[in-house]
């Protein structure tokens, strides 16, 4: 199956450790969404926003990887699954169940996300914009 990462799972070493079968395919953009950070964990989330995009990494993952991600993402309590089509392929990502107000991420978490942006060659302007809210 295909998985879209937009937060700490962009960090390729961490993603590989978490999901041993995962394979980074390429960077893609999820249209009509924007990146934000929220919850008591101050973690990345996406929310619907017209004419906005969220850059991320497209991964191929196994069923066992998906189960590990479900545990890590505290599915279905903290995050729920969201599916979209990318060139006819079904892609899964996670989005928070409770849309709490913006909270600035911890420095440690933000550094992991920044490393992921470098790993996947994503434009940091999207991350910087998300941090200005």
CATH topology: Hypothetical upf0131 protein ytfp
The largest pleated sheet is described as: 5 strands, mixed
User: What pattern of helices and strands is seen along the backbone?
Assistant: EHEEHEEHH
Low-confidence stretches: none
Give the distance, in angstroms, between the N- and C-terminal Cα atoms: 33 Å
Q: Give the CATH level 1 class.
A: Alpha Beta
Task: Give the tally of β-strands.
Answer: 5
Q: What is the assigned CATH homologous superfamily?
A: Gamma-glutamyl cyclotransferase-like
Number of helices in the DSSP assignment: 4
Judging by the overall fold, what is the CATH architecture?
A: Roll
Approximate shape: globular
Report helical residue fraction.
Answer: 25-40%
- In the sheet with the most strands, the strands line up as 2-3-1-5-4
Give an overview of the whole structure.
With 133 residues, the protein is of the alpha+beta class. It has one domain: Gamma-glutamyl cyclotransferase-like (Hypothetical upf0131 protein ytfp, Roll), CATH 3.10.490. Helix content is 29%, strand content 41%. The chain has a 5-stranded mixed beta sheet with strand order 2-3-1-5-4. The protein is globular, with a radius of gyration of 13 Å.
């Amino acid at each position: 199956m295909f998985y879209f990462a937009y937060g700490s799972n962009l960090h390729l070493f961490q993603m590989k450790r978490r999901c041993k079968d995962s394979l980074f395919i390429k960077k893609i953009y999820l249209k009509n969404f924007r990146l934000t950070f929220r919850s008591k964990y101050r973690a990345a989330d996406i929310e619907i926003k017209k004419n906005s995009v969220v850059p991320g990494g497209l991964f191929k993952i196994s069923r066992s990887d998906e189960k590990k991600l479900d545990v890590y993402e505290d599915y279905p309590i903290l995050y729920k699954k969201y599916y979209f089509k990318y060139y006819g392929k079904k892609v899964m990502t996670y989005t928070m169940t409770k849309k709490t107000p913006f909270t600035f991420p911890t420095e440690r978490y933000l550094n992991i996300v920044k490393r992921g942006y470098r790993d996947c060659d994503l434009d940091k302007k999207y991350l910087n914009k998300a941090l200005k809210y």
